[in-house]
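Pilot study result, target chain (193 residues):
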Amino acid sequence: MNSPPSPRPRPMVTNPCVVLRWTSCTPNPTAQARAALRRILDQLGLSGEAIGDAVLAVSELVANATEHAPGPYELRLRLSAAEYVCEIEDRDPHVPGIPAFPSGAPFAPDPEGRGGGLDALLDLLAERGRGLSIVNELTRGAWGFRCTRTTKVAWALFPANVPPLLAETVARPGNGAPDEVSECVERSCDLDR
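Predicted structure:
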């Protein structure tokens, strides 16, 4: 019995879309990054929980970069039909210490109805130093860092149900076809320069 052919994988964008640029003097860059990313993901046709998870995870990575590494900073988006990657670049080439993550779901409700769920999430958010745990949970472990001699890029991968024609257009920049996502480079916020 022959199995159906697997779909052809879509390439990731080689030239990412710059969503936001900022420096250490930019007022509230985390909120600005959330708003810019939410707008672009909404334009791509993503909705609800998919946008919310990405925005929360990316805001944690933006906050970490801004608090712990020198700038300038850049938030970028890479897109294919199956997934998208958000990247946050800073000027510290060192990977931060990665905490041990719980093996179970940290936000699972208590079966006896005495906490867990939202209570556990709020307790976790009330403490400092838990941002990477939140990123790990929201990305299901699909995140990490890439370093060069002078920079570090934190990345987080998310599933996407982007229409194939839009993804192909974005994946092949310069083909002359207009699309809203490639225009985000021209509309990117270049703050404090």
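One observation from the pilot: The two ends are 61 Å apart (CA to CA). A full batch analysis is planned for the follow-on phase.
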